Automatic annotation (TrEMBL):
Location relative to the cell: Cell membrane
Chief localization: membrane
Transmembrane segments: 12-34, 40-63, 84-104, 110-131, 143-160, 166-183, 210-227, 247-270, 291-313, 325-346, 358-377, 383-404
Annotated membrane topology: Multi-pass membrane protein
UniProt feature coiled coil, ranges: none
The protein, known as: O-antigen/teichoic acid export membrane protein
The keyword 4Fe-4S is assigned to this record: no
An annotated GO cellular component: plasma membrane
Keyword field: Cell membrane, Membrane, Transmembrane, Transmembrane helix
């Protein structure tokens, strides 16, 4: 069997387990804590999603692409990225902690926020999964994630039975992240024992490369985080944490199935990177079309089912307290489909070297989303936040690709769905 297909199976296995167990325990915790305290945790996690691109400095994409092409150079970039992330993390989290003292009203809110922010070290600084994905050894990620998931689920279930407060559930997230981090670190060191000196090597050239290339990617990724998390952050600031809780309940369901297209994308990007190194432009375009078509089909089927049965799903899983989330779910499932397409386009444009374009596109979309949320949330509440994100996702995933290389990526997207062979575009000068 093709190694890429086996790798996809491992990634898919990991994502399925994470999604199913994650949805189950998240719903269970949400019912236990109620919309307000569940919204507090969701708000802190939204901030983590916001700082992650700034900490990583675009390192995931840069390191993955280099590892797929040149392992030795990729290892040097991994080491450089690790050091850059650690420095960024300490600076950003220190500033956030100081700011939180002025934002939150109670010690409990401050405690939950601080636990999650500082505990996110184990996710923002985890680079080992990139190595395993690039070498088609995603089984190691699956093992680590599922062990950590089992521990996290067990802890949260125990805390519910013991009647624990919200701070314990915040700590459970950190323990889960830490277990996954240390298992992957151990497996990475064991697998690369023969070239361990490469990972420990300090290369200023590679550090400069991470910063120079990573800054546009970091800003682009930050913009993505902004327009995907702005709704939660602005709901919290303009309305209250209960609204964040309702909105997050809908997001949990609408994004829970995204592991399927993401698994395909992670594995297939290795083949696209290999095709990019060849002179066969037809093969490169063909693989990109297959990627767009596959992720769309895998994304749209569960989104349609979930959108149709949104009301009974919310009532069954969350209870009457979360009834307002049903209306939001009908919109967020559509946004999730375009989010998957946008992520695929982002990865493809990265391989093509379109860092500058991604920077401009994401800055525009994130700024527009902030304006839309500011205008629509006071008038339409939860629906306004969901519509703002949907508009941003459509623009980012499809429409704005018209302006990259004379619409080459957009043509590949459209011809993938329509089954029409696109003309070969001339490379950008």
């Amino acid at each position: 069997m093709n190694k890429a297909l086996i790798n996809t199976a491992w990634i898919l296995g990991e994502k399925v387990m994470l999604a199913l167990a994650g949805i189950f325990i998240t719903v269970y915790v949400a019912r236990y804590l109620g919309p307000s305290e569940f919204g507090l945790i969701s708000l802190a996690l939204a901030v983590v999603a916001l700082i992650t691109p700034m900490v990583k400095m675009g390192g995931d994409n840069v390191v993955f692409n280099r590892l797929a092409r040149n392992r030795h150079s990729g290892m040097l970039l991994m080491a450089a990225s690790t050091r850059v992330r650690a420095i960024n993390f300490v600076i950003i989290c220190t500033l956030l902690t100081v700011g939180a003292w002025f934002y939150f009203d109670t010690p409990k809110q401050m405690l939950v926020f601080s636990i999650i922010i500082w505990g996110s070290f184990f996710t923002t600084n985890e680079i080992y999964s990139i190595f395993f994905n690039s070498s088609l050894d995603s089984k190691f990620n699956t093992v680590a994630q599922n062990i950590a998931l089992g521990i996290g689920v067990a802890l949260k279930f125990a805390f519910i039975k013991l009647g624990a407060t919200v701070g314990f559930f915040a700590a459970a997230n950190i323990i889960q992240w830490a277990v996954s981090y240390f298992i992957k670190q151990y497996l990475f060191r064991k697998k690369t024992r023969d070239v361990a000196h490469t990972f420990r090597t300090r290369s200023r050239r590679h550090s400069r490369h991470i910063v120079q290339v990573g800054i546009p990617l970091a800003i682009s990724s930050l913009s993505i985080a902004l327009y995907t998390r702005t709704d939660q952050l602005m709901l919290g600031s303009m309305l209250d944490e209960t609204h964040v809780g309702w909105y997050s309940a809908a997001l949990t369901l609408s994004q829970g199935w995204m592991m399927f297209p993401m698994a395909l994308m992670t594995s297939w990007m290795v083949g696209i990177n290999h095709a990019a190194r060849s002179t066969d432009q037809t093969l490169f375009d063909h693989r990109i079309r297959r990627l767009f078509l596959a992720v769309f089909i895998v994304a749209v089927i569960p989104a349609t089912i979930m959108g149709i049965f949104r009301v009974p799903l919310i009532e069954l899983l969350y209870g009457d307290e979360y009834t307002p989330a049903a209306a939001v779910l009908g919109i967020t499932v559509i946004s999730s489909v375009f989010s998957v397409l946008g992520t695929a386009a982002f990865n493809v444009i990265t391989v093509m070297g379109g860092y500058s374009f991604l920077l401009k596109k994401m800055l525009f979309v994130s700024a527009l989303n902030i304006v839309l949320n500011y205008l629509l949330i006071p008038r339409y509440g939860l629906i306004g936040a969901a519509m703002s994100t949907l508009i941003a996702e459509i623009l980012s995933a499809v429409v704005l690709n018209l302006f990259y290389r004379r619409g080459r990526v957009l043509k590949l997207q459209l011809t993938a769905f329509m089954g029409i062979k696109a003309p070969t575009a001339q490379p950008a000068s």
